[in-house]
Amino acid sequence: MLEVIPFKVKQVGTVVTGNEVFKGRIKDKFGKTIKRKVKVPGSVINHQIMIPDDEELITQAIAEMRAKGTKVIVVCGELCLNCDGYIFPIWPFGK
Question: How far apart are alpha carbons 68 and 13 in whole angstroms?
Answer without folding.
Answer: 10
